[in-house]
Structures are given as C-alpha cells and as structure tokens.
Automatic annotation (TrEMBL):
Its EC number is 2.7.1.130. The lineage of its organism: Eukaryota, Viridiplantae, Streptophyta, Embryophyta, Tracheophyta. This is tetraacyldisaccharide 4'-kinase. GO terms for molecular function: ATP binding; lipid-A 4'-kinase activity. The keyword S-adenosyl-L-methionine does not apply. GO terms for cellular component: membrane. InterPro entries: LpxK (IPR003758). Signal peptide: none annotated. HAMAP family: LpxK.
Length: 357
C-alpha cells in the first residue's frame, strides 16, 4: 500500500507521463476517471450548501479557517499553532477544531507545543457538534466581529485570559463547508502548489483552483526554497482568481534538535554540521524537510520518505533502528508521538534526534 501511495503521489506531481514507468502510465486512466467522479461529487456537495439544502452552522464567536487546496506540505498545522499563540497573546482563548487523522499526529503535536496554555483542542468529524460541547462547557466571549476581535491585540496588556472561548480555528477547514467562517486562510506549498493541476487522486488538488476566490488571505509556504520567478508565477496565478487578495509568505526554519526520549532536551543544530544524516519523514513535503537539513551544513544527507500521516509498524521501526549504527537519524517532529506509541523509543540511542521547526 505504501508503494502504491508513492506512485500516486509521483503521478500527481508529473504533468507529462511520456517517460514515466509503465506502472505510472497504466494507472493514469483509472486515476483520471476517479478524479472526474470526485469532481462531480464535489460540485453536487457544493451546490447543496450553496442552495441551503445542507445546513451551515454559525457559531457565536469569530471563526478562522486555515486550509489548503492540495494535500500535505502547506504549513497548515504550524499556522494553526501560530494563530493560536497570537490569540492567547491578545487575551483570547482559542478553540482549535480538527478532524484528526490516522494516529492523531498533528493533534498530539499541537497539544505538546501548546501545553500549559489556555488553548483548547476539539477533535471530531462533526466540528459544529464538537464546538457546541466546548461552548456549553466554557462559554464564550462577547465578540461580534473580526474587527473588534483584532482590536483586542492592541489592548492585550489590560486583558486577563479567561476560560471563555473567544475565537475558533478550523484546522484544515477550507473544504469543511458546514461551518460558516469569518476569515478564510489558504496555505500553498511554494515548491509545487498545484501539482499536475488535476483533482484527487489523479492530482493533488482537493478543489479546482477557482476556490481561491473564496479565500481572504493566501500564504505561500517554503518561500525561501523557490526562485523569485516561481514566486511571481504563484502570485500571478492567485491574483488571476482574486486580484485583491493579500499574499503573505512563510518558511520552515530549523530551530534545534531534541532527543526522542526527552522532548524537552535541546541539541544545537551545530551537531549536524559535517555529519552524515538520514532524514526519516511521513509528511506532505519531504523535499522541504530534506533541504532544510542540507542547509545546516551536513556532510551527507540521505532520506527515507513515507506517505503523509503514515502509521509506522514494528517491522519498519526495527529496520530503521538498524540504520542507527550508520547514521544520526533526524525525524520530523510530526511523527514523534506515533513512533513513541508503538515503542520505537526502545530502539533509540544517542544518535537519534528530532528536529524542532
């Protein structure tokens, strides 16, 4: 299954398949049909909401949606964390609503990074129902508009954090149409934002690019890893759908390493300088992760990529553990808790580090 996922991912980011392997070419017709069916289902579902045949829920506090148009590698989860901390600094208690994926890696990463603060995290497919449970339990701040909400930041020094929920953040919310939102933020992977331009599963797009018209803000991620011309092309594409949309930029910056057995330990990035490193990841944009390690001055960098949200099994972790004798292994923080849950920590020695981004 993992091999098939990799093949589909390669197809999704390849525009011309003339020189592709036979397996790739043989799958394209089936993926094209599946994409067409997905597109039809998407149009029907969108129409049901547009004509109020499916209900949209309006919550009593401002709702910020952080989402994307393509699968993985867009910086969505770090943006959710950043906005959450901004809200806390502004005197508001945010509630993050997330569906949660296999293994709950993103949820556990958010919980670890936001531990000890007032941020609340609700997990569930029915986000309106999840929000209702938290609002009933904690109540909500009287905040009638986004403008007054952002004005709170200017008066943060006179505010005391309350348990009452002041704002809701929809994690991966762009395609979650059952909740009304006040601000729609779309995250884009600057390394390859559109793939081959097709809908899933033939391409990486969750919606047609026309969905950019709904966005209030666009954020281009990994902007430090692309050329100025590539960035201009992305900006032109975005503004071709919505001329007035503000565009911001973000990048993934390594901060330090820490021991897998001790998440609170700090190891300077200097430890990677002139070292041979094996990068192990199960994220949407492994290329960006590997490039960030290469930029630390490592002597040699190899990689072991798994599909986004991959659940590691014992035999896989055993094989990875054997590589410790040859490489200092650097994992993405996103997979720390998944690896620990299956007992991977028992294999780790002093060469194994996690990367804090």
């Amino acid at each position: 299954m993992e091999k098939l996922r990799k093949v589909v991912n390669e197809i999704a980011y390849t525009r011309v398949h003339t020189n592709s392997p036979a397996l790739h070419r043989s799958l394209v017709p089936f993926l094209t049909i599946a994409s067409s069916l997905y597109g039809v289902a998407l149009q029907i579902r969108r129409s049901l909401y547009r004509y109020s045949l499916l209900q949209k829920h309006r919550l009593p506090v401002p709702v910020i949606s952080v989402g994307n148009l393509s699968w993985g590698g867009n910086g969505k989860t770090p943006m959710v964390e950043y906005i959450s901390q901004f809200l806390v600094d502004s005197g508001l208690t945010p509630l993050i609503l997330t569906r949660g994926y296999a293994g709950g890696d993103e949820v556990k990463m958010l919980e670890r990074h936001l531990r000890g603060g007032p941020v609340k995290i609700g997990v569930g497919a029915n986000r309106a129902a999840t929000a209702a449970l938290f609002l009933d339990k904690y109540g909500c701040v009287d905040s009638s508009s986004l403008r007054s909400f952002f004005d709170l930041h200017e008066r943060a020094q006179v505010w005391t954090i309350s348990e009452k929920i002041g704002c809701i953040i929809l994690d991966d919310g762009m395609q979650h149409w059952s909740l009304s939102r006040d601000l729609e933020i779309v995250m884009l992977n600057g390394l390859n934002p559109w793939g081959n331009g097709h809908l899933m599963p033939h391409g990486p797009l969750r919606e047609p690019l026309l969905a950019l018209e709904r966005a209030d803000v666009a954020v281009v991620h990994h902007v430090d890893l692309i050329t100025k011309q590539s960035l201009r092309d992305i900006e032109n594409m975005i503004q071709g759908f919505k001329k007035s949309i503000p565009i911001f930029y973000s990048k993934m910056v390594p901060k330090y390493l820490f021991d897998v057995k001790n998440a609170r330990s700090h190891v300077a990035l200097e430890a990677l300088r002139c070292a041979s490193v094996l990068c192990v990841s199960a994220i949407g944009s492994a290329d960006a992760f590997v490039k960030s390690i290469e930029m630390t001055g490592a002597h040699y960098v190899d990689r072991l990529d798994f599909s986004d949200h991959h659940l590691f099994e014992a035999e896989v972790t055993n094989s990875i553990a054997i590589l410790h004798v040859l490489f200092p292994i650097c994992f993405t923080a996103k997979k720390l808790f998944l690896l620990n849950q299956i007992g991977f920590h028992q294999y780790h020695n002093d060469k194994c580090r996690m990367l804090k981004l």
